[in-house]
From TrEMBL:
This is Vacuolar protein sorting-associated protein 13C. Belongs to the VPS13 family. InterPro entries: VPS13. GO terms for biological process: protein retention in Golgi apparatus; protein targeting to vacuole. It comes from Schizaphis graminum (Green bug aphid).
Length: 306
């Protein structure tokens, strides 16, 4: 007879607290996974968190997404003040093949509107145009209302990207992907486990409205993603993924980046007690990364010679 131990983790956890002076939100998404529904797909799992190192997993289980907000309530002011606003996202991977991309493009392709749909959209426009100008100005003013952030922090993003053009739908490559491949001089290739590291976004003691916050955060991450396009080029399987060799000597010294599993987030209770947690840097293990990259390059050259 053997005992079976069952470990259960809730998918979503939410804690709300409120008083006359503060409002507190603490939310966790423990796991999130997106599967491909295409038959004979190369990658059955498209999106999923990357398991943390064994030393971390054994001591503490980190939720995939964690959000903690502490808002100070002031009935004499219309400006919202956030004493603490932090979101932490763990390391995750994205695996795409040409069949999945084609399916997404077909799903979002434009189609001709029927006469009934045109009439419905026209009536919606008339309804919006008939609204009083005052109500529209109130909505606009609410969007432009600024909030004060004592501490605003969005964690760095560490993304593992794997991409393959193999499959039966290779002839149906979308034009945008075909242009990108031609621009870098590659016709048929794949990307294997290339790591993109985007630094964290942080603001302290600032006044921002919702539109400004979204634009600044979007510009922060998109600009870094564009700068790291060289990572995808160096990660092409045609070269045996030499980016592994480059990142092996660079990992851990990037400015404004820390490993997501080392990030610490304060719950409302911890924040109220004044605890200060978090680590911002680590030293990478270069020996293993370099050895693995050299092996991949050697294997790729052997395949070309054969």
């Amino acid at each position: 007879k053997k005992n079976i131990r069952r470990i259960y983790n809730t998918g979503f956890w939410l804690n709300l607290q409120s008083s006359d002076y503060t409002s507190q939100i603490h939310a966790k998404i423990n796991n999130l996974q997106i599967d491909s529904q295409i038959d004979n797909c190369i990658f059955p799992v498209v999106f999923a968190p990357v398991p943390p190192p064994k030393t971390i997993a054994q001591t503490e289980r980190k939720p995939f997404v964690e959000l903690s907000i502490v808002e100070r309530l002031n009935k004499y002011s219309s400006v919202k003040q956030y004493k603490y606003y932090k979101m932490l996202i763990q390391e995750f991977h994205i695996k795409l093949d040409i069949g999945f991309i084609n399916a997404l493009i077909k799903m979002t392709e434009k189609y001709e509107l029927s006469e009934e749909e045109r009439l419905t959209m026209f009536n919606e426009d008339l309804t919006y145009a008939s609204k009083p100008l005052q109500s529209q100005m109130i909505t606009l003013s609410l969007q432009e209302q600024k909030n004060y952030y004592d501490m605003l922090h969005f964690s760095p993003l560490k993304i593992h990207v794997t991409f393959s053009l193999s499959g039966d739908e290779l002839e149906n490559i979308p034009p945008i992907i075909n242009i990108i491949l031609q621009s870098i001089g590659v016709t048929i290739t794949s990307v294997q486990d290339v790591v993109l590291k985007l630094a964290f976004f942080e603001r302290q003691y600032v006044l921002l409205n919702q539109r400004q916050l979204m634009m600044e955060a979007q510009h922060h991450y998109v600009s870094q993603l564009i700068k790291q396009l060289y990572v995808l080029v160096l990660g092409l399987d045609v070269l045996g993924n030499p980016f592994g060799l480059v990142s092996g000597f660079k990992q851990g010294v990037e400015d404004l980046f820390y490993e997501p599993f080392q990030g610490a987030i304060q719950g409302p209770e911890e924040f109220a007690e004044g605890l200060v947690l978090g680590v911002k840097s680590l030293f990478g293990h270069t020996v293993g990364g370099a050895a693995g990259a050299v092996g991949r390059i050697t294997g790729a050259m052997g395949n070309l010679l054969n």
